[in-house]
Each structure stands twice: as structure tokens, then as C-alpha cells.
Specification:
7% of the residues lie in helices and 62% in strands. By secondary structure, it is mainly beta. It has a 22-stranded antiparallel β-sheet that branches. The chain is globular, with a radius of gyration of 24 Å.
Length: 493
């Protein structure tokens, strides 16, 4: 009997059987969603790359507008008991593209289970399976179930929001063992796995990977005023990058692998964080945290690197309507073969809670590592984030949401360091990309109206503009989505 079969049988016995047999309530909910999606991206090909000086052709914008109509039935099964919960949501969809006259199937399946084995031992697991041609974390049945609260405790990164990406399969699995032992004190051990598989693409290269993470999270309260925490995680990434080419007859074939393509892209990441907090004064929480991120690449051509950050954070509630957060500290980043970067990190957040909504404004500065966005990019990112958001209920059944965001990224390529390693690997130095930056602007607004108890309709508009020093990465995107949904509880026993 294989290890996989043992894990599957154990999962059924621990989660599914108790949830279905001893549940206090079982609920079946069905629904149907119709969605019209108009997308008008414009990709601009710069005449000359500002980094390499290579020419890409013309300055004309390539328009790839699309208009699609999608139909998605939804089936939800919920089971709850005092000891645990079980949740299964499935939403297979079919989408017709009027521009390309194509018919595509989509998959959206979410499973969640939790079981208390004793007073101080609880197991939780989630699994999400997606089949899409875009990445929209807010358009999934997992969002409605509250699964984001579980996944947010891990360091699983998001895929790049790329309107031109190929169709893909994405499976995300999370498992955690939680051990609460006193008030506000808990030990959590977790295992996370993400598998990305892309279809063939004639637009650009695509990247498949397996990402596995083992994580530990400890929270301990010493007294009513003092608490501390420790997080630690080890990530292993295994990649398979293939580039597609289109012949003059329009046939799509895989290009012959070059010596550069044969180099391993696999990586290990190490993440650690410690935190000490104090809330002696009412409505004033102060904490001091240290975080570390390390990247170790299998291939010597990629330079390893480390990030160290310290941040002093202060949270304050001025009133029940106004909440603020202010933090700052030094940052140290070092990539092999490159100079040390001393910088700073920080966050400033202001949130105003209204009777019928909320408004928030956030400015954040820091470092991160990007190895799993699915775009083939590697290395550390020095970023600035500015975002404002508004949610407001105009009427009892009518709500509005809007946001403005700006993100600046200064990316460091781990392959742009030691030239001797590139020569030894047979890779041309001029072919390697140097460091570059990106500017990304996003704005959006939406209306949602509920009627006849079981029905709702929504209209959302999003605009994205990206400016990049890399060739062929500048684009603008206007998107309009109109949806009509129906959902009703059919059975409860």
C-alpha cells in the first residue's frame, strides 16, 4: 500500500466519517451563475528594451479584446457538529468566447474539513482545485466559504495576475495540526502543497511547478500584557519551464531546449519570524518583530540571497470608528555577487469604520522573494504598496465597493551576478536580464444588488496599467464583468 493511499484513507477516517455520521446539521445548497466578461487588454511592444538595447519590432499596441459568456452551476454540502465541520463546494463552468468562437470548460472545487480529536488537539485541512485561463483569487467558491482565513496563515504566494496567460490547472492543499494549551497560546504545525500545470501557449513561455512547504507557528501569552510568537517555514520548489513557438503555418510546437533551458530552476526558501508584543495600555498595542527570508537555488548560475528585517509596530484605536497602524524599521538584503542593500521597511494604515461600510488607506514598504508567480521570474523584490478601499451599503439591498492601488517593484535577478558562472554554464552574458523595475496602477469599482431573497446581480469595472523596463511587459487592461446569480438552500436535516 502506497503512502498516498494511506494518507487518503486516514483523511477519510479522521475528517469525512465523523463529520457525516455524527453531524448535528447537514445542509445542501444549489445555485446558478451567469456571467458576461468583456476584456480589452492592450500590450505595447517597445522598440528598444531599456535594459538590453534589443529591439522588439514596432511601437504599436497589440489589441486582444475578448467577450465571453459563462454559465456556472454551484452545489454546496455543509456538515457541522460540535467536534468538527465538513464542507464541499463545486462549481463547474462552461465559457464561450464570442471573439475566438471557442468553448472552454472551467473547474472550481473546494473541500474543507476540521475535526477536534481532543480538547487540545484539532486538525484542519483544505483543498482547492481550479481550471482557468486567468487568476482571480476573488472569483472562487473558496472565497465564500471563508477558506482565505486558513490559507492566509501560510506563506503560499499568489499567481501573477496576467490576462494573457495560458489555461492552467492549479491545486492547493493545506493541512494543519493545532494544539491550543492555554488562553491565546497555541502551537500550529502545517503542511502546504501547490501544483501548477499550464497548457501550451503561443503567447509566451509558461512554467509548471510543485511547491511544498512545512511550517510551524507558535503563539504564547506570558501574561495579560505580554505575548510572543515564532514562525518558521521551509519551502521546496521544483520547476519545469517550457517555451512554445508558432510556425509560419500556425502550428504550435515546443522549441528545442537550449543549454540555458537545461539549467535547474529548483529552489529552497527558508522563512522565519519572531514577535514580542505588549498591550499594557488600553487601545495601544506595541510589538517588535524580526523576519528572515533566504533563497537557495540548486543551479550555481542563480545567486543565493538573504533578507533580514526588523520592525517596531504600534496599533492604536482612537475610537470605535478609527483604527491606525504605524510601523518602521531597517532592512538588510544581500545577494551573492552583488552589493549589500541597506534600506527600510514600514507600514502606515488608517481605517475608518462607518455604520454602513468602511474606508481604508494603507502604505507599505518592504522586501519579499518572488519564485512562484508562474511567470518564470526569480529573486528578491523591493516594493512599495499604496492602496485605498471603500465598501459602503447604499441601500438595504444595494452595496458599492471601490479601490485605488499603486505598486512599485525593484526586482533583482539572481542570475545577473557572477559572470564566471554564466560562462562556465555556457550561457551568454548579454542574454541575461539585469535588474529592472515595474510600476503597476489599478483602479476598480463595483455595484451589487440583491433581490427576491435568492437572487443577486453585480457589475464590476477594473482598469490596470503596467509600466516595466523589461521588453513587452507594458500593457493596459480595461475589464467589465456583469453577473447574475441565484442560490437557495434545498435540504437541511
Amino acid at each position: 500500500m502506497t503512502v498516498r493511499r494511506i494518507l487518503c484513507i486516514t483523511g477519510v477516517l479522521v475528517f469525512v466519517f465523523p463529520a457525516l455520521t455524527f453531524a448535528d446539521a447537514k445542509i445542501v445548497i444549489t445555485g446558478l451563475s451567469v456571467r458576461f466578461d468583456y476584456d480589452n487588454p492592450q500590450y505595447e511592444s517597445a522598440a528598444t528594451d531599456s535594459l538590453t538595447g534589443n529591439s522588439s519590432g514596432t511601437n504599436e499596441k497589440d489589441k486582444e479584446s475578448s467577450a465571453a459568456l459563462g454559465l456556472r452551476p454551484v452545489v454546496k454540502f455543509l456538515s457541522e457538529s460540535k467536534e468538527g465541520t465538513f464542507e464541499l463546494l463545486t462549481a463547474p463552468g462552461i465559457k464561450h468566447d464570442f471573439v475566438d468562437s471557442e468553448l472552454d470548460w472551467e473547474v472550481d472545487v473546494f473541500l474543507s474539513a476540521a475535526q477536534s480529536l481532543s480538547k487540545n488537539w484539532r486538525l484542519t485541512t483544505t483543498n482547492t482545485l481550479l481550471r482557468r485561463d486567468e487568476y482571480d483569487p476573488h472569483n472562487s467558491v473558496a472565497v465564500d466559504s471563508g477558506a482565505q482565513d486558513i490559507e492566509s496563515e501560510s506563506s503560499i504566494p499568489a499567481l501573477a495576475v496576467d490576462r494573457g496567460r495560458s489555461r492552467y490547472w492549479l491545486n492547493t492543499f493545506n493541512f494543519a495540526s493545532e494544539h491550543p494549551y492555554r488562553e491565546d497560546s497555541q502551537l500550529r504545525l502545517g503542511f502546504n502543497n501547490r501544483i501548477l500545470r499550464n497548457d501550451e501557449s503561443v503567447v509566451r513561455s509558461y512554467e509548471d511547478y510543485n511547491r511544498t512547504e512545512i511550517a510551524m507557528k507558535q503563539r504564547h501569552r506570558f501574561s495579560s500584557a505580554w505575548q510572543a510568537g515564532v514562525d518558521f517555514g521551509v519551502v521546496r520548489g521544483e520547476f519545469d519551464t517550457t517555451e512554445m513557438a508558432t510556425s509560419e503555418e500556425g502550428n504550435t510546437t515546443a522549441t528545442e531546449p537550449t543549454q540555458e533551458d537545461a539549467l535547474s530552476e529548483d529552489v529552497r526558501e527558508y522563512r522565519a519570524r519572531t514577535l514580542v508584543g505588549n498591550n499594557t495600555f488600553r487601545h495601544h498595542d506595541v510589538s517588535l518583530g524580526y523576519s528572515y527570508i533566504g533563497a537557495r537555488y540548486d543551479e550555481a548560475l542563480h545567486d543565493d540571497g538573504d533578507i533580514h528585517e526588523i520592525q517596531l509596530l504600534w496599533r492604536h484605536e482612537y475610537s470605535r470608528h478609527v483604527q491606525t497602524k504605524l510601523g518602521a524599521g531597517p532592512s538588510y538584503e544581500k545577494t551573492e555577487g552583488q552589493d549589500v542593500n541597506w534600506s527600510g521597511n514600514g507600514i502606515a494604515e488608517w481605517k475608518y469604520l462607518l455604520r454602513s461600510g468602511s474606508f481604508s488607506l494603507t502604505l507599505e514598504k518592504g522586501y519579499d522573494v518572488d519564485n512562484f508567480s508562474g511567470t518564470g521570474e526569480r529573486g528578491f523584490v523591493d516594493f512599495w504598496n499604496l492602496r485605498s478601499g471603500l465598501e459602503y451599503r447604499l441601500l438595504e439591498d444595494l452595496s458599492f465597493n471601490g479601490h485605488l492601488a499603486y505598486r512599485y517593484e525593484d526586482r533583482q535577478n539572481p542570475s545577473a551576478g557572477d559572470d564566471s558562472q554564466a560562462v562556465a554554464a555556457g550561457v551568454e552574458i548579454d542574454a541575461r536580464e539585469e535588474d529592472f523595475n515595474k510600476n503597476r496602477y489599478t483602479t476598480g469599482a463595483g455595484l451589487r444588488y440583491s433581490f427576491l431573497k435568492d437572487y443577486s446581480t453585480s457589475l464590476n469595472y477594473t482598469f490596470i496599467k503596467q509600466d516595466s523596463e523589461r521588453i513587452d511587459e507594458d500593457y493596459e487592461d480595461h475589464r467589465l464583468v456583469l453577473s447574475l446569480s441565484w442560490e437557495k438552500e434545498w435540504l437541511r436535516w
